[in-house]
């Protein structure tokens, strides 16, 4: 049985109202239980200062209890409103970080207080989610039905633990109390609020059941990250699932995570915490890196404390030898070196010889970052192997140059970013261009094993050389890209102006409605003609012949009026037809497509010249005629941007045939409540509606019955046109409506919305967050 939509709406709002009414009682019980918990904790503490801190926290809680009880409902309403706005926003990103995580780049911009707030918020959110998980399941199912979803959408539940924790955290932060006091409230009050939510969810679930709201079905839906990983299937690309990654170095057949090695050796709490990582990014540990040598058995690396240079002599000598004789020959002229240390041993030795917390943390961060990249399924196996083999060079850099973490333009970071991002262009090892890419990559990778591979200048040389090798066709591609972008910009600008002109045409007092063919032409192609004319010369230009021709066309369409002035009609018809044809030619509009309009215009003119009395008064439109009028009236709303054939060729424009593959509904047959659509189809459609591609995203695109790996390289200023670029600089542009429809049909599959290096560094930040949240926190 399906809950009627009217019941859904009423039940949903009533459930929210009931939750808001419960807020003061909820906070009152929370404050009382928290005060008791703090008191019990203070009784077992022996240290005087700490005991006094807990007593102050209890006193502050009792002082502000009334404000907490009165303010929680308001904060919850604000949190729900912010979440609703973020979900409905055009530019919202479903893959954006959750409240419990923070990106690597954002962490650098935070202050110490903000870092602590993020940790407190994340710990509170995690505690609430775990404490009320059992009661949330049933309530979320009924709440999804009340919201109109056919499957459970826990992420759309406005009363989910994440929203409650955000409201509680925001409310506590507004209290005029010491930061340590607020942290104790949140640390010791998380479990208490979780237990209270468990009871609240149970009551609300029973209330919805009493209103006749049935639970929605639970469907299996992957997160956006997992969807990106699964986007490319072997059946579509000709590739096969990647085997487990086992780099051939270190201990036999094993790769030990750097965090596990260092923590096992150190026998202490996690080194990688959000606070420590933040200090590394803002440069608080930089002084500890100066003048520090490398462990015995490793080559020394000069620390460069000036701007990056591309003139290190040793590196340039190696590159010159490479280009002239090849890697093998250049290595033959060098004296043999001692074999490199195994990776695990190298890590352990670097950690043992580290002279500061900053150096130890840098080694751990680099190790985790390389592991994330080397295990990223978006990269092909040979690329992942090259990155893994290059870890010693990045470890040597980590103990000497802290700017690798704080400077996004550091040559070593840029080199990793360029390599991994460029490799996403290839869906398989058999893809066109991959062999050449790998040849360039292996030559650069070989140089990372050289004796100077450990400072910023050497990485800068490698970056320059790799980009030079990859840019053999850059100028040609850039010029082609420039022309395509120029054509699309011109098309969008013209289309936006044409929409305004179409509205102006409809609003003219001499506009004659009722003829669908004529109306479609005037507000469609002819509006495009006038838009181009205005863009070139302005609306008041004396050469605005096409705008002036509109007046004659509209005058001639009034049969009653034209029949009374047949002489004038005969005089203006030749010039009118000439202007119409020239106007269409100015926008490269195919004349064959305008034939129905000219036939209709000729018929109207013949009626006017015949001066038949039956045509002197307009006939009442039939039912079919009314449909045509309404369809013509609705046309400006549904019209898609139009590109001239020359613009379409330059930008690889994809026509709108995909819009008719699977219509949303049949207007003549109402949709049945008992749809036979599967849960999976509903989930896929709802997910596709929320996908908003970032500039630079990689996708699998179906073109001419073939899957191509393409990158989103341009989005128009008003988000009406998108352009992808595939191998060889081939361009594929489309309207936003076509893109959304292709996403819903599975004709566009998202491979990657985030750079590989960016994602790896964010994984490091998430690991630091987990370590921080796992701590007991301040007493």
Can you characterise this structure?
With 779 residues, the protein is mainly alpha-helical. The chain has three domains: 5-219, no CATH class; 262-472, no CATH class; 477-645, no CATH class. It is built from 34 helices and five strands. It has helices spanning 5-43, 48-63, 65-88, 104-109, 112-131, 133-146, 161-173, 179-210, 224-229, 234-237, 258-266, 274-282, 313-325, 327-332, 343-353, 357-374, 381-389, 391-398, 403-406, 411-423, 434-447, 456-470, 474-507, 516-523, 525-537, 545-557, 559-564, 566-586, 595-610, 623-638, 645-651, 679-689, 736-745, 756-774; strands at residues 698-703, 706-715, 721-726, 730-735, 748-752. Strands 4-3-2-1-5 form a five-stranded antiparallel sheet, with helices on both faces. α5 (112-131) crosses α7, α26 (545-557) packs across α28 (566-586) and α32 packs antiparallel against α33 (736-745). The longest helix has 39 residues, at 5-43. It is flat and about 110 Å long. The two termini are 52 Å apart. Mean pLDDT is 77; it is low at 90-100, 221-268, 291-316, 322-338, 613-638 and 661-688.
Strand content: under 5%
Please estimate the helix content: 55-70%
Strands ordered across the widest β-sheet: 4-3-2-1-5
Mean pLDDT, rounded to whole units? Answer: 77
How many structurally independent domains? Answer: 3
Largest sheet: 5 strands, antiparallel
Task: Count up the helices.
Answer: 34
What is the end-to-end distance? 52 Å
Unreliably modeled segments: 90-100, 221-268, 291-316, 322-338, 613-638, 661-688
Overall shape = flat
Structural class: mainly alpha
Query: Using DSSP, what is the number of strands?
Result: 5
Radius of gyration (CA) equals 34 Å
């Amino acid at each position: 049985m399906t809950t009627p939509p009217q019941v859904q709406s009423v039940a949903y709002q009533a459930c929210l109202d009931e939750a808001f009414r419960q807020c003061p009682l909820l906070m009152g019980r929370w404050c009382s239980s928290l005060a008791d918990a703090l008191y019990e904790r203070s009784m077992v503490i022996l240290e005087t200062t700490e005991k006094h801190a807990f007593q102050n926290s209890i006193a502050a809680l009792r002082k502000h209890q009334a404000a907490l009880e009165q303010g929680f409902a308001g904060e919850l309403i604000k949190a729900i409103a912010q979440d609703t706005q973020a979900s409905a926003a055009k530019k919202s990103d479903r893959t954006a970080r959750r409240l419990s995580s923070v990106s690597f780049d954002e962490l650098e911009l935070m202050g110490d207080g903000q870092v602590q707030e993020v940790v407190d918020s994340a710990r509170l959110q995690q505690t609430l989610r775990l404490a009320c998980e059992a009661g949330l399941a049933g309530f979320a199912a009924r709440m999804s039905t009340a919201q109109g979803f056919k499957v459970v959408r826990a992420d759309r539940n406005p009363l989910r633990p994440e929203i409650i924790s955000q409201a509680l955290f925001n409310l506590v932060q507004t209290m005029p109390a010491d930061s340590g006091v607020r942290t104790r409230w949140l640390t010791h009050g998380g479990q208490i609020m979780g237990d209270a939510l468990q009871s609240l969810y149970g009551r609300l679930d029973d209330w919805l059941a009493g209103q006749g709201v049935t639970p929605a079905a639970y469907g299996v839906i992957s997160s956006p990250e997992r969807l990106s990983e699964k986007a490319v299937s072997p059946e579509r690309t000709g590739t096969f699932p990647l085997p487990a990654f086992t780099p051939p170095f270190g201990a036999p057949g094993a790769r030990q995570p750097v965090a596990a090695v260092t923590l096992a050796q150190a026998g202490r709490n996690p080194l990688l915490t959000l606070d420590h990582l933040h200090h590394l990014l803002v440069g608080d540990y930089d002084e500890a890196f100066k003048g520090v040598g490398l462990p015995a058995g490793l080559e020394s690396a000069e620390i460069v404390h000036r701007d990056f240079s591309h003139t290190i002599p040793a590196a340039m000598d190696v590159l010159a030898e490479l280009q002239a004789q090849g890697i093998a020959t250049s290595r033959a002229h060098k004296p043999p070196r001692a074999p490199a240390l195994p990776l695990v041993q190298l890590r352990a030795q670097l950690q043992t010889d580290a002279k500061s917390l900053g150096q130890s943390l840098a080694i751990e961060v680099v190790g985790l970052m390389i592991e994330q990249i080397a295990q990223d399924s978006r990269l092909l196996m040979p690329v992942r192997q090259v990155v893994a083999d290059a870890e010693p060079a990045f470890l040597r850099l980590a103990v000497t140059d802290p700017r690798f973490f704080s400077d996004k333009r550091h040559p070593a970071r840029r080199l990793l970013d360029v390599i991994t991002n460029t490799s996403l262009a290839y869906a398989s090892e058999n893809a066109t261009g991959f062999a050449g890419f790998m040849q360039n990559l292996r030559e650069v990778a070989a140089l990372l094993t050289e004796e100077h591979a450990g400072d910023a200048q050497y990485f800068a040389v490698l970056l320059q050389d790799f980009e030079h090798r990859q840019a053999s066709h850059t100028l040609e591609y850039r010029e082609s890209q420039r022309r395509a972008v120029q054509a699309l910009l011109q098309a969008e600008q013209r289309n936006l102006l044409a929409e305004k002109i179409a509205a102006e045409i409809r609003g003219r007092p001499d506009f004659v409605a009722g003829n669908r063919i004529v109306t479609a032409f005037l507000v469609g192609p002819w509006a495009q003609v006038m838009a181009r004319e205005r863009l070139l010369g302005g609306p008041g230009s004396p050469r605005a012949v096409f705008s002036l021709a509109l007046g004659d066309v509209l005058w001639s369409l009034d049969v009653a009026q034209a029949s009374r002035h047949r002489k004038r009609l005969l005089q203006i018809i030749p010039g009118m037809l000439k202007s119409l044809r020239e106007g269409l030619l100015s926008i490269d509009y195919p004349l064959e497509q305008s034939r129905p309009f000219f036939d209709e215009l000729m018929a109207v003119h013949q009626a006017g010249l015949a001066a038949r009395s039956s045509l002197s008064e307009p006939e009442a439109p039939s039912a079919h005629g009314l449909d045509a009028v309404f369809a013509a009236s609705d046309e400006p709303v549904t019209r898609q941007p139009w590109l001239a054939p020359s613009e379409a060729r330059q930008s690889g424009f994809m026509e709108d045939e995909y819009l008719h593959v699977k219509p949303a509904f049949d207007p003549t047959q109402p949709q049945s409540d008992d749809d036979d659509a599967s849960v999976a189809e509903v989930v896929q459609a709802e997910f596709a509606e929320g996908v908003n591609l970032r500039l630079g995203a990689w996708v699998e695109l179906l073109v001419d019955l073939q899957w191509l790996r393409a990158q989103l390289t341009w989005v128009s200023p008003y988000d009406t046109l998108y352009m992808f670029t595939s191998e060889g600089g081939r361009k594929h542009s489309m309207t936003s409506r076509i893109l959304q429809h292709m996403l819903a049909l599975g004709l566009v599959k998202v491979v990657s919305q985030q750079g590989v290096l960016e994602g790896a560094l964010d994984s490091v930040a998430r690991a630091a967050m987990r370590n921080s949240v796992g701590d007991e926190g301040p007493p």
